Amino acid sequence: MCLSFYKFILNILTLYSKVFYKYEVVGEENIPTEGNIILAANHKSNLDPIFVASAIKNRKVATIAKKELFDNKILASILNKMYVIPIDRDNPGISTIKVILKKIKEGFAIGIFPEGTRIKGNEFGEAKAGLALFAIKGKACVVPISIISNYKLFNKVTIYIDKPISFEEYYKKKLSTEDYEKLSQDVLEVIKDNYFKR
């Protein structure tokens, strides 16, 4: 039931993206069909989760979102059926980390915004430690995704998907929060480079 609801909503979101925007996906072949992956994208609009989910056809996506979205019971019900994972952005608990790692094991592509919040315009924020932490603990490759748009109706939206990045060399190393932040920032730099190149 939940999966069919997910597909139904995904089809609506894809239709929305294509009807109201000049929606283009570049690099779709860079999404592995199997194996543990995390989708890391820049975040400038509330539409970003829709645009990312619409671009991924070969994997179920479980997006990480701020827990405040779940305050509304109706919205929370829909988000749960869409496999959205609530997170306290200031203090993500161990239980949340366990849920994310469980979803990775179950074959979901985890959608995450490394900056942790929306950064509007052409500016970028600093990456949080979470992206690299989830990737290393979940033994997952990270796929950098650049969402390039001014978000105005009927204007162009380009989803640029780059090749997966492996953190395998760090799987057995003891890392500090600063280490995780730096590795997350490395991914964000790739996202930024592609954003400004397109």
Task: Briefly summarize what is shown.
This protein has 198 residues and is α/β, with parallel strands linked by helices.
Structure description:
This protein is α/β, with parallel strands linked by helices and 198 residues long. Helix content is 39%, strand content 19%. It is built from six helices and seven strands. It has a seven-stranded mixed β-sheet with strand order 1-7-6-2-5-3-4, with helices on both faces.
Give descriptors for this structure.
7-stranded mixed β-sheet; 6 helices; alpha/beta
Question: What integer is the average pLDDT?
Answer: 94
The amount of beta strand, in percent, is 15-25%
Based on CA atoms alone, the radius of gyration comes out at 16 Å
How far the N terminus sits from the C terminus, by CA atoms, comes to 39 Å
- Number of beta-strand segments: 7
Sequence stretches where pLDDT stays below 50 over 5 or more residues: none
User: What order do the helices and strands follow?
Assistant: HEEHEHEHEHEEH
Tally of DSSP helical segments:
6
Instruction: Note the overall shape.
Output: globular
